Amino acid sequence: MRKLFTICACALLSLTYTVKAQVLATFEDTGTDQLELGSKWYESALFSVEPCIGDNPSKSGLNTSDKCFLAVNVADADWWGNFGELTFKTPVTITEDNRYLKFLVYRSIQPKDFRICVNENGNQEHEDAYSVYQGLVSEDATWVGVVADLGANWMGKTLTDITFIFSCNWTDPRSGWGVGTYAFDDFQLSSDPIPTGVTVIDPTGFNLNFENQTAIDEWVGEFDTLNVNNTYQIIDNPFTTSEVNSQGKVVEFYKSDQASWWQGFRTVFNGTMELNDNTRYLHAMVYVPSVALEDRMGVDVQLCAKDHTGAENNYLETVWDDQVDEWLDIVMELNSIDYLKELTVRFDVKTDETSGEYVNSSSNTYYLDEITLNDSPDPRFEITSGTKVTKSDGVHVYSKSGMIYVSDISSTNSIVNVYNTLGDLVHSSTFHNSATIAASPGLYIVSVSSNGDRKINKVLVK
């Protein structure tokens, strides 16, 4: 069973926005700032430097200014009383024009998440109810842009204060780290959800086929194997007799048996792509060798896409024993994120049969090619020099999201019969070119008859 790929190539364009923004505080001139140091209760014993307007701990990168809002925890600081507060000099009502609270964050260490709350008004008991952001940032000891969406729960409401829990130390382990400096700066309210320091690019024409370095540089900022024992190289496609993908360059990825399940081949893009209706499906062509099967019927491959905030969109597909030793297009609908910053292809994601816990898999070499975005959930069947080629004599069967998809371009009228593993006929119909069949999860035998010829396929519906 093989799958179909669509390729296009266009220029990379930066997006432009009409952005409405209101600067709340830079802390360089407290007289003009709209935020000021609040009076929220905190536990003094947790701080070597209590919450204050102080000196920037690292005048580099995104923030070279002199002052910021900061606090310094002692080692192993608890969460209770680990608070700070900024209040609005004049309360602000949240609308679509100012729903995003944007600011810079610096954390010298990140033992736990930090949390941002609004409108606590001195309340010390119910931080969950007021939370608008919780998480780590992407790097230690570096200024990073963060965005909190206030519109989700506070649209049309008036804000009076912002509360910070500098380290949410309420889960194990409760100790084991040192002094932590936490700083915040450049607060603004905006109609734009993109953090400071993030470049948004237009994904129109995105196609990564590894043909030459110029094309790679257009889209890619970094390739990463995520484990020092993993390796990769871009080579001439070794599978010149492949019916699916026989030409050009491909990635050869060696996954070590020392690599964890998630340590696959990671691609970080030059910017953050804003997704739209035409770019909701991510396609990646993979090649799994039969040696990777060992004594199993299939090998699990996972696509993990992330946006600039670290939010994930994952899809796991099993490459079955009749799909190995050939190129296969894996398709993931990007329905959990609206921006794409990076993609990791995880080969042989394996779990222990007894515990269900992730375990390391055997070392093997895998191949990757032709990563693209488009508006089609249909897999690609064949790649020739980056151009979609329709097979003239093939019947193609695949499944996705509880549906069986059948295409037969060799006949104007075809009959499809679907059988379960007991041999029972569960569907029969006549179709022209293609058919879509709803099916419960399970393994099916699909028979397609046309022009006096009959072709049999098996398909697993998840």
Describe what is shown at a glance.
3% of the residues lie in helices and 48% in strands. It is mostly beta strands and 462 residues long.
Q: What is the terminal-to-terminal distance?
A: 16 Å
Principal-axis shape equals: elongated
Biggest sheet features: 7 strands, mixed
Tally of alpha and pi helices? 3
Please identify the oligomeric state.
Answer: single chain
How many strand elements?
35
The CATH class of the largest domain, by name, is Mainly Beta
Mean pLDDT: 88
Rg (CA only): 27 Å
What's the name of the CATH homologous superfamily of the largest domain?
Answer: Galactose-binding domain-like
Counted up, domains total 3
What share of the residues lie within helices? Answer: under 10%
Q: Output the CATH topology of the largest domain.
A: Jelly Rolls
> Which residue ranges are poorly predicted, with pLDDT under 50 across at least 5 consecutive positions?
1-17, 385-393
The appropriate CATH architecture of the largest domain is: Sandwich
How would you portray this structure in words?
The chain is mainly beta and 462 residues long. It has 3 domains: 21-190, Galactose-binding domain-like (Jelly Rolls); 201-374, Sandwich (Jelly Rolls), CATH 2.60.120; 392-461, Sandwich (Immunoglobulin-like). The chain contains 3 helices and 35 strands. The chain has helices at residues 127-130, 151-154, 213-219; strands at residues 13-14, 21-25, 35-37, 47-55, 67-73, 83-93, 100-107, 114-118, 131-135, 144-149, 158-165, 180-190, 200-202, 207-208, 220-224, 231-236, 249-255, 265-274, 281-287, 298-306, 312-320, 327-333, 339-347, 350-351, 358-359, 364-374, 383-384, 387-388, 395-400, 403-408, 414-420, 425-431, 434-438, 442-450, 453-461. A hairpin with a 6-residue loop joins β24 and β25 (358-359). Residues 1-17 and 385-393 have low confidence and may be disordered.
